[in-house]
Amino acid sequence: MSQHESGTGPAVDGDSDGVDPARVRQLWHLLEPLHAVLYYAPEVFEEVADLGYDTKERWPSYFPLRAAPLGAVGAERVASAFYSFSPRMVAEHIDSAWSVANPEAVLAARLRGVDGAYRAIFGELVDSPELAEAATLARRAAEAVDTAGRPLAAANAELEWPTIPHLQLWHAATILREHRGDGHLAALLVAGLDPAESLVSFAATGAASVERFESRGWSTAQWSAARARLAARGLVDGGDGTATEAGRALRRQVERHTDQLAAAPWRSLGQDDTERLVQLLGDYWVAVLSSGLLPSETTLGIGKV
After folding, report:
1. Nearest Cα to 124, choosing from 286, 279, 284?
2. For a disulfide at 256, which of 14, 54, 122, 294, Cβ 3.0-4.6 Å?
3. At what angle do helices 59-67 and 42-51 cross, to 10 degrees?
């Protein structure tokens, strides 16, 4: 049974200042795929290819698509905001990104691409009153985010809202996703996990295969060095690299902290409207997952922690 069908979502220990932490996490699970269409939909690839980006693989467009709200910033600032990507990999794609197209052109292209993708995925549901209602509720939550110390959430929140309901839904999902992501980085910093260690420690719990995490661009030597640092802290087994109980406990703490930091928009929206949004999002979540666009294994570890 899926989390949508069960109506509960995965259990999370602790609380989120009066908001059910399982609901906070479930809303992430429901909204993340709606945002992530940006990085996989052929309609988006067509738009960025027209701008001149290489679309034979997703990374040359991923970095400008996600970083464009920040403006024409350099690799160091993007690596800081994206955190778990190797700075070398970020520089490989960002150093030339804004010579291909400026951020304003990328922002326009991503809206056109998502518009086409949503129309293809949702069909006639794209014009439904239920989608419009979901967009209104998600926008209220997104407009309630506190962007202090959250650069990607702030950059997206500063953009002008689209007028079309399904694009408002996507924009809200994006702000809320980056708000949670910025908070997650804060939780990793508090846990003392640097960018490479954040991936190695998560892979050690079985959240996804090491090969999937290696897509973030760290070298074998950097991965091994991060594992050695974690082993010295007693967080992973020095032999096979699997997480120790202390390592699993630390990752659970990171997730609890992330959920707590992500709770404020839902507290602002209120329990009844939050529950209504969960009900409304189900059909669109199913449609995106059923489209086959998104990979079956990701570095997010949804459903694993």
Report:
1. 284
2. 14
3. 80
The CA distance from 106 to 220, in Å, is 33
Tokens representing 5 are 């069908």
Q: Does the pLDDT of residue 10 top 90, yes or no? A: no
The closest of 233, 178, 203 to 305, measured between CA atoms, is 203
Task: Please state, as a whole number, how many other Cβ atoms lie within 10 Å of the Cβ of residue 269.
Answer: 22
Question: In whole angstroms, what is the distance from residue 16 CA to residue 142 CA?
Answer: 17
Token digits for 253? 């703490």
Determine what percent of the chain is predicted with pLDDT higher than 70.
91
Q: What are phi and psi of 238, to 5 degrees?
A: -65, -15
Q: How many CA atoms lie within 13 A of 263 on its CB side?
A: 20
pLDDT of residue 229: 98
75-90 average pLDDT score:
97
Render 241-275 in DSSP notation, one character per residue.
--B-HHHHHHHHHHHHHHHHHT-HHHHHH-HHHHH
Separate counts of helices (H) and strands (E) for the chain: 17, 0
| Nearest C-alpha neighbor of 288 from the set 157, 168, 114 | 114
Q: Decide if 159 contacts 69 (C-beta within 8 A).
A: yes
Q: Which long-range contacts (CB under 8 A, 24 or more apart) does 156-159 make?
A: 156/69, 158/69, 159/69, 159/107
Structure tokens at 301: 């570890």
Q: How far apart are CA 34 and CA 54, in angstroms?
A: 24
Confidence band of 208 (pLDDT split at 50, 70, 90): confident
